[in-house]
Design a protein that fits this description.
By secondary structure, this protein is an alpha+beta fold. The protein folds into 4 domains: 81 residues; 92 residues, Beta-Lactamase; 71 residues, Helix Hairpins; 154 residues, Heat Shock Protein 90 (2-Layer Sandwich), CATH 3.30.565.10. The chain is 52% helix and 18% strand. The protein has 13 helices and 13 strands. It has a 5-stranded antiparallel beta sheet with strand order 2-1-5-4-3, sandwiched between helices. A 5-stranded mixed beta sheet has the order 7-9-10-12-11, with helices on one face. It has a 3-stranded antiparallel beta sheet with strand order 6-8-13. Helix 1 runs antiparallel to helix 2, helix 8 packs parallel to helix 13 and helix 9 packs parallel to helix 10. It is elongated. The termini are far apart. Bound molecules: adenosine-5'-diphosphate. Adenosine-5'-diphosphate (ADP) binds next to helix 10 and helix 13. Adenosine-5'-diphosphate binds next to helix 10 and helix 13.
Amino acid sequence: MAALCWAVFDLDTAAAVLCVLLLGLLLHHLRNMARMAAWARQPLGTPVPGSIGVWDYIFACLSRRTRDAQERRELLARNLARFREANQAMPDGVIYLSQHHTIEWMNAAAAGYFGLNAETDLGRAITTLIREPDFVRYMQADDDAGQMEPLILHSQRQDGLSLAIQRIPFGENLEMVLARDITQLERLDMMRRDFVANVSHELKTPLTVVNGFVETLLDGGDEFSLDDRQRYLSLALDQSTRMQHLIEDLLTLSSLQAGSEPAEEDPVDVQALLGSVLHETRVLSGGRHQISLDAGTPASLLGSQKELHSAFSNLASNAVRYTPDGGSIHLRWGVKADGSAEFAVEDSGIGIGAEHIGRLTERFYRVDRGRSRETGGTGLGLAIVKHILTRHQAQLDIRSEPGKGSCFTARFSPKRVHPRA
Ligand code: ADP
């Protein structure tokens, strides 16, 4: 343009035009630089201003780069949110620690287990918040190889809560603390150990007695009369019968525990079942008690004949075994207006203290161990009854008063009861 002016006009005019052009260009650059500076001060995501010439190209490049950065940020934020959601959904407690053991993040389970606040406790040292000495020692131990055994912590804060705590190093000197609730596992383990100890104890006593008699007979040679031999052998037989009953009950219990449904789903004729339970009860009592039956409305019970028979006769035989001679035992069946039904065994026996009632269906729980053994009990009868009733969706209700008698009632829901014509 200036060269054209020089050709057409004179040098001064051309110089003046050149100055104006340069000034315009300078102003254009300054204006765009100011717009860029103003844009840079805006929050991320503010649209890049448009322009012309080289500035249009620069702004287009900037716009593409900020869009890419924005998309990367959104992707990162989405991944972080998903990662937090996944950690939040974990049933275990998760705490992320910085290299100085301050809390960077924790999920709700961890906050619940340790009584922490998932927002206000961030940034604080974990050992100043969880002060249980075992935990503090565990967190202060060196774990260079990252292979520390988990710590089993019996919480002082929440009664009965047991946690398995594990430190897991990751990244650069960062750590994750995992806390798993093992209360239920520990309880099961203890129950298993108690059960094995109980079974061993129950078998050991009669076995010792049998061994004793056999040794006595072997050592005694010919010095025992035939009567003595008979007596010792029959006492040994009593003990081996006891062991046999125990093993039978254990097998019954284990087969009942194998599933949650009755072995069969047949319509069981309740009146026939009651007749056979009454007969067995009379045989067991041998005329020592007054035994009566109110067979109520004829009905069928949907379930397993064998299991229902076992449950009903266990309740009736307990009534015989825990009722002194001369007492009364009443068996009762009834269908209610709502279609549910009850089988009850009422006795005028020794009764049970209120403090024992909640535990009677535990395996090997006995109020009076001596009396249970004398009458051939295994301590498993009511546990078997409870399992059978649970498999039939029935409830066991126990009412009793020491010295006055007891009433054990099995309640069946209308779904299982079908009145017979
Ligand atoms: P056991 O073989 O010892 O009788 P059970 O499981 O049948 O075992 O019963 C558990 C305990 O419940 C018994 O040891 C006894 O103390 C108590 N019990 C059960 N039935 C009666 C009852 N009808 N009267 C009094 N006590 C009972």
